[in-house]
Amino acid sequence: MCGLCVSRCPTDLAPPNAALLARRLYARDIAPRAQHLAEAIAALQAGRWDAEVAALKAMPEDALKQRYAARTIEP
Predict the structure, then answer these.
(1) What is the DSSP string of 38-69?
(2) How far, in Å, CA of 73 to CA of 48, rounded?
(3) Which long-range contacts (CB under 8 A, 24 or more apart) does 51-55 make?
């Protein structure tokens, strides 16, 4: 959505903005909610990762950098 059509629109609409609004409204009102997201939010609110986050916060910066560099990256 480059926006070049805005200057040529006879109705003075901004088509990229209208498309963005349509996409957001679709996602908010029509699209089904993701089940895996709801499960992840429930696990977060239950405190599933509190210990891991506390351990990461307690790590020195050098150890965090090494752990970040050694992470598994998806192909």
Answers:
(1) HHHHHHHHTTTTHHHHHHHHHS-HHHHHHHHH
(2) 23
(3) none
* Other Cβ atoms closer than 10 A to 31: 10
In 3-state terms the chain splits into helix, strand, coil percentages (rounded to 5) of 65, 0, 35
Query: 2: pLDDT confidence band, cut at 50, 70 and 90?
Result: confident
SS3 3: coil
Rounded CA separation 47/41 (Å): 10
Total-model pTM: 0.51
pLDDT score for 62: 96
